Amino acid sequence: MRSFDPDVAQSRDEIDALPSRDVRDDLRDADREAVLCALDRVTEALPGAERREGQRAMAVAVADALATQGHVVIEAGTGIGKSLAYLVPVALEGRRAVVATATKALQDQLMEKDVPALHAAGIECAATVLKGRQNYLCQQRLADLGAPEQATLELDARPEAGVVAQLRRIAAWAGSTETGERDHLGFEPDARAWARVSMPAEECPGADRCPHGVTCFAEVAKRRADSADLVIVNSALYGAHLSTGRTLLPAHEIVVFDEAHELDAQLSRSLGVECSGSRLRAVAGLARRVGVPDAGDDLATAADRLQRVLQDRISRGTQTGLDDATRAVLDDASRAADRLVEAVEARPVGDGELQRWSARGAAVHLRGDLVRLRDPGTDDLVFIEGSERQATLVRAPVDVGGLLAPLWAETAGVLCSATIPERLETRLGLDGVRRVELASPFDYPRHALLYVPRHLPDRRDPSAEPLMVEELACLVEAAGGRTLALFTSRRALEQVGRSVRDRVATPVLLQGEGSRARLLEAFEADESTSLFATMGFWQGVDVPGRTLSLLAIDRLPFGRPDDPMLQARRERAGDGAFLAVDVPRASMLLAQGVGRLIRTAEDRGVVCVLDTRLATATYRSRLLARLPPMRRTTSRDEAVAFLRAATAPTPAVS
Asked: What pLDDT does residue 295 have?
């Protein structure tokens, strides 16, 4: 830690080797005091500065874990200020660290709000954000694009004007952007448009072969990461880093997993592999472009067969495991990928060398994934997800604890969230690790009200949605806008959101009408604005003040009955699976969503859960146990009165 006195000891090893326990304890006490003094400097400079004892306790817990190269799991209630509580001791430690967040939005929040707070307090920390390669504009792809109209014709026999227009906007933006990040684009691009101007990691020929290698946005971001003290990534990229033998990120001695409540599920997916007919066809298309159409045709044939096999299995409801037909088509696809690699490598060097390397990289990567899909391990689950039209075969480990053992052996780990599920440590291979629980400092009984409109039909009843629209419209009007409404499905978001927008006088924004960053910016800028969004906004959204006075949740966040990974865990849990697997998970996610409402000691508002099961189900107490200690009501009149009081103008001080 940078606060060490070099005259006392040269290294942590020397400190631990000192014979006097008292000396070691005195040194660690000094470290803790240095962390707390630094944290005080940071928080005193923030607007509405306040001393938070929970934040100080968390900072000490993090510092202790780092000092011993150990691990700690911290459940820090909303309002603790967990970001600064780990950033300050990590920055003072003086060793490279990676912070992995659950969402890209939280990455940006850390970089744009929290890291500058450290710098303002005089704490040196060279920090940068790093995202997966496909999040960056590829300048070579853009150069190869030619006319947007032609690019769209290649992509779709019926070119859409919207995609063409987006490609034009992207091309114009490319001349002014400094980062090339998709999230900085200013609008949410169609997936087909962005696919034409981004480069999957497996297709990238490498900076040394690319004419744009020096200025490549992804490579520039990676070079910044290589020289940074703190690299901020998301959990998916960290999982990809682990799955590729820890080659994607710079070497580091500390990792912090923020919003770690679903880390086991996120890493399970990242450490797995997947394949679909569309992926096979995409690689076949690369083969044709480099002049090996026969090899591409073989892979395209395998793609059609794989799609038919997966469609058939979905129609029969056999979506888990491998059957003979699936194994056979995987074998054929693997042989086709082998032939494609050989054909591409046999092509003479010449024009189109970049395309040749892209095709080879994609085919080699595909070949490896097909082998892994064909031969899963004993603790792997193979399943089909998606619809009959767009089906994907996935292999993922049910338990990731054993796979993480090398990481924990070499890296100090901090895992934190407002809600930490039971047995998370066990599922992550951290049995016996220290767990710290810190309650929220906010006065929830006085400042927040939980409202469940018990008079509505069951949320799963088709008649519930029109009545839910009327309920939401009434509450939004009472709040004067100021609403964040969260939905568990995109369909419900769009139908309910449009209907509410037609009924209220204040602006209503819907997810998809702009980029996430722009939507949040517009929501924060105008108190009368409401934002309707899906579970992508369920966490990592920090909007303090009267702008967010009503938080509405359309449905309890239970996992789908046919979710293969949850099914596997239910089978392991036996007869009590619903209470052992589904209810704890829904309770944890519900608490995460509810945590968007009260963000400061002055915030007030209503949480409305439009799913009557929270008021009527026999297991409701288990769901409520995870929530903050808010007052509860089933009376709309009480909720409306609370909202009007919470959003009333503050009297002027004479």
From this structure: 81
185 φ, ψ to 5°?
-70, -35
**12-126+402-438 and 444-646: same fold?**
yes
391-397 and 380-386 beta bridge pairing = antiparallel
* Unique residue bearing structure tokens 């209630």: 77
Q: Is the dihedral of CA 186, 192, 197, 198 positive or negative?
A: positive
Residue 359 is which amino acid? Answer: A
pLDDT tens sequence across 7-27:
333 333 433 443 443 444 555
Residues in the chain, total: 654
Question: Are 603 and 544 in contact, with CB atoms under 8 Å apart?
Answer: yes
**Over 397-417, what HEC string results?**
ECCCCHHHHHHHHHCEEEEEE
Query: What class, spelled out in words, does domain 12-126+402-438 have in CATH?
Result: alpha beta
Q: Angle at the Cα of 478 (from 475 to 484), degrees rounded to 5?
A: 50
Strand partners, 231: 98, 128
Fold of 444-646: Rossmann fold (3.40.50)
Copy the structure tokens of residue 417: 């969230």
Name the residue with tokens 């096979």: 280
In whole angstroms, what is the distance from residue 652 CA to residue 146 CA?
Answer: 60
pLDDT at 5: 34
Residue 634 belongs to what H/E stretch?
Answer: none
Angle of the 490-503 helix axis to the 464-479 helix axis, nearest 10: 50
Structure tokens at 403: 């796979």
- Identify the burial level of 287 via C-beta atoms within 10 angstroms of its C-beta, where 0-12 means exposed, 13-18 middle and 19 or more buried: buried
The pLDDT of residue 467 is 93
Whole-number Å distance between alpha carbons of 574 and 559: 17
pLDDT-derived band at 457 (thresholds 50, 70, 90) equals very high
340, 288 contact by CB (below 8 A)? no
| Range in 56-60, 367-371, 650-654 with the lowest mean pLDDT | 650-654
Contact between 280 and 332 (Cβ < 8 Å): no
pLDDT per position as a tens digit, 177-204: 999 999 888 888 888 899 889 999 889 9
Q: What are the extents of the domains in the chain?
A: 12-126+402-438, 133-221, 273-395, 444-646
Contacts (Cβ under 8 Å, ≥6 apart) of 453: 471, 608, 610, 612, 634, 636
| Residue 41 buriedness (CB in 10 A; 0-12 / 13-18 / 19+) | middle
Average pLDDT over residues 557-564: 86
Determine the Cα–Cα distance for residues 113 and 6; give it in Å rounded to an integer: 33
Q: Is the pTM of this model over 0.85?
A: no
| The pair of three-digit structure tokens given for residue 625, joined into one six-digit string | 């146990």
**CATH entry, 273-395, from 2.30.30, 3.30.70, 1.20.120, 1.20.1050:** 1.20.120
Residue percentage of the chain with pLDDT more than 90: 58
Q: What is the pLDDT of residue 345?
A: 87
Read off the tokens for 494. Answer: 């769009």
